[in-house]
Structures are given as C-alpha cells and as structure tokens.
C-alpha cells in the first residue's frame, strides 16, 4: 500500500503551553509532504519529526490567526539557510501575501528559492491543488476570520498485475498498462481473458479531512462523508459551551457529533484550550458519542 500518513507537529490553541505546540500537521502522501498550518515553533517540531525538509513543497493555511501562521517566516528563512532550490507554494487567504511580502523583502533577500503564493477563497468549496497522487479541496468553515479546512483525496492507483497470468497467456508488454487500467485481453483466436483473471484490485483511495478552527457546523458533514480520518477541533468541553459559542470554536461533544453524522471511520480531536491540564476529559466526552476517537498529540503519526 502506498504511504498516506498524518504527522501531528502541534495541536494546541492560541495560548502557548508547555504541553502542546501551536497548530501544524504534515500529510505524507506517496513521499510528497503537505503542511497544514504553521504555528510558531513549527520548524523545531518538523526537525523532531525527522521528515525530510526537501520533500515539503506545499503549505496550506486555514486562516490568519497567529497560532496557525506565525511559524511561516522562520520556516521560510530556515529553508533559505539550507540552500533550498525548489519553489515553496503557500495556499492561503490573499491577505497573507501582503503581510509576509515586507518581511520576505527584509529578512530573506537573495534566497535560493521562490515563495509562490496562491490566493484561496475560504468561503468557497474548491479544488486548490491537484496532481497524479492527490487532490486538495477547501472546506468552508465558520470562525472569527475567513477560515477553511482541507480535504485530501488520494487518487486511485491501477490494478496490480498477476505476473504468472501475464506469462501464462504470453501477453505483450505494450498491453500491460492497459490491463492495469482495467482492460480485458483478447487472444489471437478471439478468446477474451477477463481483467479480473489478470489483475488484483488496488487498495481503495483514502481521504483525510482537516477542520480547524470552526464553530459547530453540521453542513460540513456532506462534504466529509465517509472519510478515513477526520481531524476536528475540540477546543472546549461542554461545560464551556458558552465560551465555545462566543469564540466560534467547538466542543469535543460537537466534534464527535460531526464525526457520527458524517460516518467517518476515525476521529482525531485537537486544538486544545490551555485551560485543560488533562486532555483525557475531552477524549472521554467525544468517545461517549463517537467511540472511534483519538487525541492528537505532538509527534503522533497516523497511518491511513
């Protein structure tokens, strides 16, 4: 099975603590790295993860609160010191380029690579990245600033050839790719060998949805229905429901309700408020509604 891993670099909320780092994740799909959010200190956490810096070419920023983007300048500068040459693509609200341009001009003159900004509309559901392995689309959310989540959809891979059957029927090499992609094989005497006899179906494509920061928003369940893994913010417990509503955040119970309604396979909660010394309180609340819930934590790797 091809690699599809989610690495948690930080899962805290805005107020720094000694227990959690600011929000950031890396998704590894077939050895291509995609970063989601880049809170302060992300480059240190990236070092700890032992992921290869050179394979990170795309960064997606959900919104322009500092705990989701203050780490960008440090990361960009570090890449320059490492004499990076590949372009670094950043997908975010258009305001981010205006904010970073003066800092780049001042701190990063003469860099060996380009930072390419891609303006996105957080309020619109749209595919913002697409290649042979994966597509990434925005999930419009509701928070104090324009905010979106991101849905990673793996592309299907061709079926796997059964080498013994290819040799048995003496199938020419130039037909192999067509057979991988589902074609039957017709022999010279007209006999048709069904594709199911020649190949093994590939594994079904996997999906990952990232939803932070947002208030309780049931409409997103249609877009994320059935995903393999959902990350949903759970900043508060239900005892702080009034605070959650006022700040446009979610409780652990609400995250679990979204997961249950969407029929996801697994829920991971994070973006924990600094007020909680014990994150298991949030896990207990979510698990009571959606048992397939896990806590995000720094240096956690989830293999899909």
Structural commentary:
The protein is α/β, with parallel strands linked by helices. It has 2 domains: 255 residues, 4-Layer Sandwich (Metallo-beta-lactamase, Chain A); 41 residues, no CATH class. The protein is built from 10 helices and 18 strands. It has a 7-stranded mixed β-sheet. A 7-stranded mixed β-sheet has the order 7-8-9-14-15-16-17, covered by helices on one side. The chain has a two-stranded antiparallel ribbon with strand order 10-13. Helix 1 links the parallel strand 3 and strand 4. The mean pLDDT is 95.
- Counting structural domains, the number is 2
Placed side by side, the strands forming the largest sheet appear as 6-5-4-3-2-1-18
CATH topology of the largest domain: Metallo-beta-lactamase, Chain A
Compute the separation of the termini in Å: 10 Å
pLDDT under 50 segments (min length 5)? Answer: none
Mean pLDDT: 95
Number of strands: 18
Structural class: alpha/beta
Give the name of the CATH architecture of the largest domain: 4-Layer Sandwich
Strand content: 25-35%
Number of helices: 10
CATH class of the largest domain: Alpha Beta
Can you describe this structure in just a few lines?
It holds the Pfam family Anti-Pycsar_Apyc1. With 304 residues, this protein is an alpha/beta fold.
Topology, pairings included?
Elements: E1 4-10, E2 24-29, E3 32-38, H1 42-49, E4 56-60, H2 66-69, H3 72-81, E5 88-92, H4 95-107, E6 115-119, E7 127-130, E8 134-140, E9 148-154, E10 160-161, H5 163-168, H6 176-180, E11 185-186, E12 192-193, H7 195-198, E13 199-200, E14 207-211, E15 229-233, H8 241-247, H9 252-262, E16 267-270, H10 280-287, E17 293-295, E18 301-303
Parallel strand pairs: 3-4, 4-5, 5-6, 14-15, 15-16, 16-17
Antiparallel strand pairs: 1-2, 1-18, 2-3, 7-8, 8-9, 9-14, 10-13, 11-12
């Amino acid at each position: 099975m091809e690699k599809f891993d989610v690495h948690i670099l930080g899962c805290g909320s805005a107020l720094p603590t000694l227990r959690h780092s600011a929000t950031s994740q890396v998704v590894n799909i077939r050895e291509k790295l995609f970063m989601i959010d880049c809170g302060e200190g992300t480059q240190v956490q990236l070092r700890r993860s032992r992921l290869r810096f050179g394979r990170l070419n795309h960064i997606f920023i959900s919104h322009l609160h500092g705990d989701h983007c203050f780490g960008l300048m440090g990361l960009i500068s570090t890449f320059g010191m490492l004499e990076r040459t590949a372009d670094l693509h950043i997908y975010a609200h258009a305001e981010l380029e205006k904010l970073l341009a003066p800092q780049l001009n001042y701190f990063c003159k003469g860099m060996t690579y380009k930072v390419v900004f891609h303006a996105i509309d957080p309020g619109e559901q749209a595919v913002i990245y697409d290649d042979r392995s994966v597509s990434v689309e925005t999930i419009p959310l509701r928070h104090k600033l324009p905010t979106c989540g991101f849905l990673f959809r793996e592309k299907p891979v061709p079926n796997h050839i059964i080498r013994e059957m290819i040799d048995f029927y003496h199938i020419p090499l130039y037909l192999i790719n067509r057979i991988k992609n589902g074609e039957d094989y017709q022999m010279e005497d007209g006999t048709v060998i069904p594709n199911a006899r020649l190949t093994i179906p590939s594994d079904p494509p996997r999906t990952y949805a990232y939803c932070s920061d947002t208030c309780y928003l049931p409409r997103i369940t249609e877009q994320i229905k059935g995903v393999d893994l959902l990350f949903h913010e759970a900043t508060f417990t239900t005892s702080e429901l009034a605070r959650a509503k006022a700040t446009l955040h979610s409780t652990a119970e609400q995250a679990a309700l979204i997961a249950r309604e969407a029929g996801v396979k697994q829920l991971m909660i994070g973006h924990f408020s600094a007020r909680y010394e014990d994150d298991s309180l949030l896990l207990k609340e979510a698990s009571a509604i959606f048992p397939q819930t896990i806590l995000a934590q720094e240096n956690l790797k989830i293999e899909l």
